[in-house]
Design goal:
Blueprint (H helix, E strand, L loop, with lengths): L7 E6 L8 E3 L4 E4 L3 E9 L3 E7 L2 E8 L2 E5 L9 E2 L28 E8 L17 E8 L1 H11 L23
Parallel strand pairs: 3-10
Antiparallel strand pairs: 1-4, 2-3, 4-7, 4-8, 5-6, 5-9, 9-10
Amino acid sequence: MKTEKGIHVDLIDASTRRVPLDVVTVDTIFVKMPHGNFEVRIVAPQPTNVAVRLDDVELVKCQVGQGMTFLKQSADGKPFRFTAPGKRSAAAPDTVSEGEPASPPAHTHGLVLVSVQLAEQAPTPTTAAVKADKAETVAFQMNPLREHLRVVAAQLHRVIAPEPLTPTGCSCCPQPGK
């Protein structure tokens, strides 16, 4: 998914190191993701502030440099993990108030929110200063295969068609002679 500021954000299945099948709707990207570890791939045109949340738990908040970066573990070193409902994920805190065990909210199971913001840049002799702009958030809803098919069928009226290919490839690639 490419944001308005030109930052690419994808989820990666850590077991295959591939982008899983996804369907883009008006406000969410539905991802066919098996249970297990996953990664967030960020491709940024300049240093970018990133925050990754899974099921209302902040996994990591950091700044990534220009180019491609893979985020795969939380601030405390645990891998990003998508688990079956009712299972404790690496994202879940060990306890909640009064010592009760934590469990992710059922209504947000598998919801990954990735917020990106171009970082503030000091001026250099060759470039102007860049102020930090407003953050953009990309929402991914991870589901195992059977649930993914059910959800996509229910969301077909909201699906956004992919960009058309040109004779030389996708619309984001440089065209010969231009």
